[in-house]
Amino acid sequence: MEVSTGPSPRHTNSNPLNREKDKENESPDLELETVESSSFNIGSDHHHHNFHSLSALEILRETVRILRYNSAGFMAIAAVLICPVSAVILSNVLVDQSLVKRLTIRLLLVAKSTGLPLKPFIKQSCHKFSETTVSAIMCFPLFLTLSLLSKAAVVYSVDCTYSKRKFDSSKFYVIITKIWKRIVFTYLWVCGVISGCLMLFLLLLMIVSTVFSIMGFPPDLILYPAMVVGLIFSIILANAIIICNIAIVISVLEDVSGPQALLRSSSLIKGQTQVGLLIFLGSTIGMAFVEGLFEHRVKTLSYGDGSSRIWEGPLLVVMYSFVMLIDSMMSSVFYFSCKSYRMESANEEIEPVLEALTLSSGLPQVQ
Known about the structure:
Blueprint: H1 16-24, E1 41-42, E2 49-50, H2 56-69, H3 71-91, H4 97-113, H5 120-138, H6 140-162, H7 169-214, H8 219-253, H9 258-268, H10 273-299, H11 309-345, H12 353-360
Antiparallel strand pairs: 1-2
């Protein structure tokens, strides 16, 4: 996008006073330029818009350009809000291994009762599921505070970049105090949706395995329909997570929350699901790669005397935080891409909700 022609991909602010201030404070060295095929071209004089829905690769490129433009702000968010969460997640310092072991044993007993063979793959899957579940429960207060605040800060920073405004901590504080309840409410609904999907998967897996066991199939053959169920569920869960991620962005930028935000997210990304799946796949692979490195290079002493843990541990925490930052930024860019395309199709303008909140608070417009 060529920022010299207008804020992209958001529509030009309809408030003349704010528009004049934006022009006066427009940074001359703003270099958020994209190739013509993937750019949002906005005519500033006659409000002639030409939006294009972005592919996953174009969204990644757009994210990198936004990161380069405001690298100091995003790095500060990563250092203050994301790194502590990453350190806790990777180290599992809050996870009680005795609980993980007990839950793993119960899952293995359930799997055996349904006819599934207790192969190493099944045992590892049960252990990983148990560890993830216990970690999510123990880290929930951290996710509800720092992690959620970091997502809101990233969304606000991306919004400021597209509006050609500087990130202002006082304005962000005023905004977050006004919208925090609806963000938390949406996040609780997100947790409920994800938990419901997982419970539905376990129930469906038990039913399928039990039915094939009653029909007389050997345990080794029962494993195949169970794997098919797991594959189908993975696609469903990925779609649910994409919808939930965009719902969090919507709860920050729009005056909706909870189930309304989830429904709006589902409607907004309609036709762009493949792009969302690719974004989710890339982020998941990146996080899993760093988690694997941390497991084998830091937790497990598999080489040397372990002295390299001193620098490898913090480095992997920083890498994991960077992946989480990019994931949040890509979700925000994906939202703006879908939103701009939908608004252009409906010939409407995006309401500047965050700016309205700032004005209603009585704070001066610090650009």
